[in-house]
């Protein structure tokens, strides 16, 4: 069982997945900062200076605070502004990942086309050319 585990861990796919998860977590932080610090302030300025993060509906009559953090301390709230921010984060992250995958796929196709052209243009090895010549000469020889 230990040997199977070692073989499983040693596979490239597991290591690639681990690297992807770590980079994905860091990339998520970058996208969160992009949305919170750059995109949402611009959206707020365009739409009259509002901030999505403080949009909520109180679910208790005891909640009367103007900010989400203070309202959460007073009681239950329906924080739809935070949800909108998370949805926007997701859409931006999904768009960036889509563009990256699209770029990688385009690059792969170009590399494959280049390899196919190189394979077509390369002359056959000397031994294959010699065997082809012998085959052609034997085919031209009259039957006995």
Helical fraction equals over 70%
What is the mean pLDDT? 83
Low-confidence stretches: none
Largest sheet: 2 strands, antiparallel
Strand order of the largest sheet: 1-2
Radius of gyration: 31 Å
CA-based shape: elongated
Beta-strand residue percentage:
under 5%
What is the N-to-C order of secondary-structure elements (H for helix, E for strand)? Answer: HHEHEHH
Count, helices: 5
- Cα-to-Cα separation, first versus last residue: 66 Å
What structural category characterises the helix and strand content? Answer: mainly alpha
* β-strand number: 2
Quick structural summary:
This protein has 144 residues and is mainly alpha-helical.
Task: Explain what the structure shows.
There is one protein chain. The protein has 144 residues and is mainly alpha-helical. It has five helices and two strands, in the order ααβαβαα. Helix 2 packs across helix 4. The longest helix has 42 residues, at 80-121. It starts with a helix and ends with a helix. The model has no long low-confidence stretch (mean pLDDT 83).
What keyword list fits this structure?
144 residues, two-stranded antiparallel ribbon, 5 helices, elongated
Write the layout of secondary structure elements.
Elements: H1 2-10, H2 12-46, E1 57-58, H3 68-74, E2 77-78, H4 80-121, H5 126-140
Antiparallel strand pairs: 1-2
Helix pairs in contact: 2-4
């Amino acid at each position: 069982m230990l040997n199977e585990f070692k073989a499983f861990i040693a596979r490239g796919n597991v290591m690639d997945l681990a690297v992807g998860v770590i980079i994905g977590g860091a990339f998520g932080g970058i996208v969160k900062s992009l949305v919170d610090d750059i995109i949402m302030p611009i959206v707020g300025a365009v739409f009259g200076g509002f901030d999505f993060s403080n949009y909520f509906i109180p679910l208790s009559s005891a909640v009367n605070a103007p900010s989400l953090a203070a309202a959460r301390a007073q009681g239950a709230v329906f924080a739809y502004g935070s949800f909108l921010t998370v949805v926007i984060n997701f859409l931006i992250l999904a768009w960036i990942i889509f563009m990256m995958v699209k770029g990688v796929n385009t690059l792969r196709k170009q590399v494959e086309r280049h390899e196919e052209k190189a394979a077509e243009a390369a002359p056959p090895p000397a031994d294959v050319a010699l065997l082809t010549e012998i085959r052609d000469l034997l085919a031209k020889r009259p039957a006995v």
